[in-house]
């Protein structure tokens, strides 16, 4: 299939592009480069040995998106483009609603006109908010607790309503848990601008000597060692989940959602210890106050994706640490370096 990947120069987008190409699909990448680098696309070409069509522009610009559809025969879309920093979304809600919802609406309207009705949407486990229990299944209550999560929840609802009104639409929303790690080549990986919000890139930068120590946000949660527990999923397994979703889009009309997670929980201290083992570097860390908005524990029941998409995570947190370290140590300043 010929797949348009929005956010194609980003962390998830580049890894998904590699996985799609290696599965025999063709890709067209679209990215505004707000928080990604064109160098990442060149690295995708190095890894796959294939030239990749790449368009720089904004998904919310109808003329730009229509031009991309006019230039390429697109069979399906993987929509990853969007703002994704939880903390920033609470400070700038209007920017998040405008950017993330406008982009989706524009993309769907252009797809409708172009006669393209297949989409895999990048959703997030954040749509579950603070779950009543774990592991989390897709039928559990959806209740976003920040504007970023709300944009994902609204997007899923928009796609559900669209598919209900127009049966030709086939949509799969993938609810990512915590994507971590890097491609095994070390050529692409997570490259957050500024100070990383997320745990893994922060640990990697401490290991590389770019940051002094990891601040552990609380050790008084109701978890085995008191620190927050999450479902860390290797980004290559996540990318393969998109390939599985793309290849199952034709199976059933309508809109479906699947958890993409390992099904296991890892604490902050366990993640730090795993990274120390994988990198051979000491990771200084200090326990400080909880981060507002954080929840204690969150991990997936990924059995629906296994049943319907034939997908299951194959890589461990240790693999993610080893691959993240290979990326970080080979690219101490990320793509810009
Ligand atoms: C993980 C754990 C922190 C940083 C977020 C978004 C989610 C998704 C993934 C987009 C928590 C602790 C973190 C640090 C720490 N993004 N931590 N020190 O918050 O689970 O999920 O990113 O879809 O939507 O909500 O990920 O990596 O920020 O935190 O102790 O410097 O690490 O308290 O327990 P989170 P995270």
UniProtKB/TrEMBL annotation:
<protein>
    <recommendedName>
        <fullName>UDP-glucose 4-epimerase</fullName>
        <ecNumber>5.1.3.2</ecNumber>
    </recommendedName>
</protein>
<dbReference type="GO" id="GO:0006012">
    <property type="term" value="P:galactose metabolic process"/>
</dbReference>
<keyword id="KW-0413">Isomerase</keyword>
<keyword id="KW-0119">Carbohydrate metabolism</keyword>
<feature type="domain" description="NAD-dependent epimerase/dehydratase">
    <location>
        <begin position="3"/>
        <end position="261"/>
    </location>
</feature>
<dbReference type="InterPro" id="IPR001509">
    <property type="entry name" value="Epimerase_deHydtase"/>
</dbReference>
<comment type="pathway">
    <text>Carbohydrate metabolism; galactose metabolism.</text>
</comment>
<comment type="subunit">
    <text>Homodimer.</text>
</comment>
<keyword id="KW-0299">Galactose metabolism</keyword>
<dbReference type="GO" id="GO:0005829">
    <property type="term" value="C:cytosol"/>
</dbReference>
<comment type="similarity">
    <text>Belongs to the NAD(P)-dependent epimerase/dehydratase family.</text>
</comment>
<dbReference type="InterPro" id="IPR005886">
    <property type="entry name" value="UDP_G4E"/>
</dbReference>
<keyword id="KW-0520">NAD</keyword>
<dbReference type="InterPro" id="IPR036291">
    <property type="entry name" value="NAD(P)-bd_dom_sf"/>
</dbReference>
<dbReference type="Pfam" id="PF01370">
    <property type="entry name" value="Epimerase"/>
</dbReference>
<dbReference type="GO" id="GO:0003978">
    <property type="term" value="F:UDP-glucose 4-epimerase activity"/>
</dbReference>
């Amino acid at each position: 299939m010929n797949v348009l990947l929005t956010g194609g120069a980003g962390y998830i987008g580049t890894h998904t592009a590699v996985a799609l190409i290696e599965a025999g699909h063709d890709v067209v990448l679209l990215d505004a480069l707000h928080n990604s680098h064109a160098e990442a696309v060149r690295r995708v070409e190095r890894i796959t040995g294939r030239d990749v069509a790449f368009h720089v522009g904004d998904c919310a610009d109808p003329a730009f998106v229509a031009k991309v559809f006019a230039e390429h025969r697109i069979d399906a879309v993987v929509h990853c483009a969007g703002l994704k920093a939880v903390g920033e979304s609470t400070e700038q809600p209007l920017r998040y609603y405008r950017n993330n919802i406008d982009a989706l609406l524009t993309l769907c309207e252009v797809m409708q006109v172009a006669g393209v009705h297949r989409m895999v949407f990048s959703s997030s486990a954040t749509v579950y908010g603070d779950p009543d229990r774990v592991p989390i299944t897709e039928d559990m209550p959806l209740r976003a607790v920040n504007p970023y999560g709300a944009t994902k929840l609204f997007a899923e609802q928009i796609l559900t309503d669209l598919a209900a009104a127009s049966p030709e639409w086939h949509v799969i929303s993938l609810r990512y848990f915590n994507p971590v790690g890097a491609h095994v080549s070390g050529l692409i990986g997570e490259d957050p601008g500024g100070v990383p919000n997320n745990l893994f890139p922060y640990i990697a930068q401490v290991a590389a000597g770019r940051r002094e120590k990891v601040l552990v946000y609380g050790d008084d949660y109701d978890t085995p060692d008191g620190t927050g527990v999450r479902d860390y999923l290797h980004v290559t397994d996540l990318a393969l989940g998109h390939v599985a979703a793309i290849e199952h889009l034709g199976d059933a009309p309508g809109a479906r959602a699947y958890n993409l997670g390992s099904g296991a929980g890892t604490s902050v201290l366990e993640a730090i210890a795993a990274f120390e083992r994988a990198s051979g570097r000491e990771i200084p860390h200090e326990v400080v106050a909880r981060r507002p908005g954080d929840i204690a524990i969150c991990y997936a029941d990924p059995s629906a994706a296994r049943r319907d998409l034939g997908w299951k995570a194959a890589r461990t947190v240790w693999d993610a640490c080893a691959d993240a370290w290979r990326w970080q140590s080979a690219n101490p300043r990320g793509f810009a370096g």
